[in-house]
């Protein structure tokens, strides 16, 4: 089969479009014919310098195939597989949990210490075929395109778990979404609008904010012009917002905390600008603030999201679709932040 592979980490030059053997299946696995695979920023880190990938390459499991957000059709199933059949249209849950630890048993498998991410610890979807445990395959409606489905797992699952499961967003809430032009930000905007909440959105350009306005954002804030917390407090007449969706880290932490109303909840899933932030403990307890973390989400949540997208309630933003062999170009677009929405690779175009 054709695949994009790499045997050493580095620039996009290391990515090679070549022939590799089709994966062989264990009894509980399914082989998926990839129709679309979305590119994530994690793919770029993996290609450049993530130590987990370096270790995998050093072990001799070369070459590595990236790609965690995958949609396609089932081409083959192992002897023990039940519940899905050859020909089913599916989207893959990106994580493979151990299935036997206490977190897995509680249904919070996103906390499993030994879970693997498809395309990271295992070979992924930058290929004509990928294998995965059959329980990762979520059947999807014919109304949902492969490209839209592939754009969902990581970004929408992260945003849903943050807003709905962790922060318990309610229709009467005001919610601040940082970096609305990114994958998690734009997914968060759509999910927040579904609940009826009022959305404050930040971005670095008026062009991105105009896109956010068209998608339903209520208050647009260009953080290059002004501290976003000042705008939040002005618009809310000093009250602040009920929920902050935070994924930036050190650079925005103080403003995110300052934007919170009484009983406000800050939920964080990322620290692209640094790990350390401080908090005024007195203000925290006086205002009854909650600061919480969030890590991807569960298969049950992804089923909910695939269902909502199949009914047209969520519409992933697709920047462009490229043939698989142009994966390097897709990485450069993402690295240079030239995209608004997801870039998807398709082996069959
Ligand atoms: Zn587990």
UniProtKB/TrEMBL annotation:
SMART domains: PKS_ER. The keyword Transferase does not apply. Gene3D superfamilies: Medium-chain alcohol dehydrogenases, catalytic domain (3.90.180.10). One of its GO terms (molecular function) is oxidoreductase activity. Coiled coil: none annotated. InterPro entries: ADH-like_C, ADH-like_N, ER, GroES-like_sf, NAD(P)-bd_dom_sf, Zinc-ADH_QOR/CCCR. Keywords: NADP. Pfam families: ADH_N, ADH_zinc_N. Residues 10-345 form the Enoyl reductase (ER) domain. The keyword NADP applies. This is Uncharacterized zinc-type alcohol dehydrogenase-like protein YogA. It comes from Geodia barretti.
